[in-house]
């Protein structure tokens, strides 16, 4: 009877402790993050955004259920993230989850909110089937709203959500001035870049004049692919802008090519001289690279003409990047007729190469003739890791410190217009947006753009290491079970021996 009363007391105490823990957990949220990149720890940037909210943000998450485990994990991760956002914001982030597959009304609501379904492959009862899945969210603040149409599994989830909340909560967007008047392309010919920038900034053209410096009202200015010369008064205004501590993005063509006549020529705008006075040299050369795009070349075979794809080293695919916010997470940027950059400045300026050529690259002095039919060999690429883009910080003009991002190709963010429109590589756009973020945004959100699952493919390991890992994965569980079995046998044997001893109680 006494034992029953004690058991009842223990159960009541246990129930009370669990209830207390549940009550405390409603007010306090924490978790331990042992991942190498602190994937599940909110950044300071996100915390600052959440703590500065003046009114509630409502997030309606439209996620399907009964999905394959790797897809379902996205829903779980997003819910955990929302719980933490709600906790850090002091309850200013409210959320609910809706399963659009549950009924037609929920599905219509999801689609009206801008969340479109995607088809995913799944297996049920040993059969491969396709399922319609929703993995998106609607973020609302007052009368404003922003749509996250699809959360890619393994993508930078925190960056996506924090950017969406900041987009709604920001009062005055930073203004980015795109300099015009020297043959630069209009903003309308950079549709992809403009669309990406206008999420967090206000991008507008600015034409420099000779009477007053109208650059000073911009958070950052961008000069992209000028063709005509800059007058001395414009350089003075740019120097004044830098002297005030502001920042500049430059994408400049030192050389250019014409595929119709296979000629490569030099471009002179005065920017190359202005940069050289700061110890930054845009070399008068074409960088050639074994890692390059292919061009279509017509070839005659008898009476037939067949288009053949041939590698064209004058249009490199840059895939070697420094670990820097401007280039972090980039995989491939196509650079059309790019030059190399060298630095000879003093210690008042810090020069950091961030975009480089591959280990098989070289240079050709401009002007040059493009031999499209040339059979390239390794001897044509004796150089490696030439600087194609750089970050420059320090006293670029005057006593104030300022920042500059320089890419030695002005064409990389340009789509063109009308019939000349061309879809860009995603990383071409990301390079420009990353650079503007780093120059203009002091919240630290750029650090989150590539925060997600780190890829560590086994294919990059040596064959011997891969074999060892496979054998270890196969045998280790078996060995552990055998050792545990031997331990249990010996342990039970010892117990039996003790029980057989005289005086055992």
Walkthrough of the structure:
By secondary structure, the chain is of the alpha+beta class. The protein folds into 3 domains: 24-169, Glutaredoxin (3-Layer(aba) Sandwich), CATH 3.40.30.10; 175-448, Class I glutamine amidotransferase (GATase) domain (Rossmann fold); 460-498. The protein is built from 10 helices and 24 strands. It has helices at 2-27, 44-51, 69-88, 104-112, 157-169, 191-197, 232-243, 271-276, 426-440, 463-500, and strands at 57-63, 93-98, 118-124, 127-133, 135-141, 144-148, 175-180, 202-207, 220-224, 247-251, 255-258, 263-266, 280-282, 285-289, 292-301, 304-318, 320-321, 333-334, 341-343, 349-356, 361-365, 368-369, 387-394, 402-407. It has an 8-stranded mixed beta sheet. The protein has a 4-stranded mixed beta sheet with strand order 2-1-5-6, covered by helices on one side. Strands 11-12-22 form a 3-stranded antiparallel beta sheet, with no helix packed on it. Helix 2 runs parallel beside helix 5 and helix 6 runs parallel beside helix 9 (426-440). The chain starts with a helix and ends in a 5-residue tail after the last helix.
Short description:
This protein has 505 residues and is of the alpha+beta class. It has helices at residues 2-27, 44-51, 69-88, 104-112, 157-169, 191-197, 232-243, 271-276, 426-440, 463-500; strands spanning 57-63, 93-98, 118-124, 127-133, 135-141, 144-148, 175-180, 202-207, 220-224, 247-251, 255-258, 263-266, 280-282, 285-289, 292-301, 304-318, 320-321, 333-334, 341-343, 349-356, 361-365, 368-369, 387-394, 402-407. Helix 2 (44-51) runs parallel beside helix 5 and helix 6 packs parallel to helix 9.
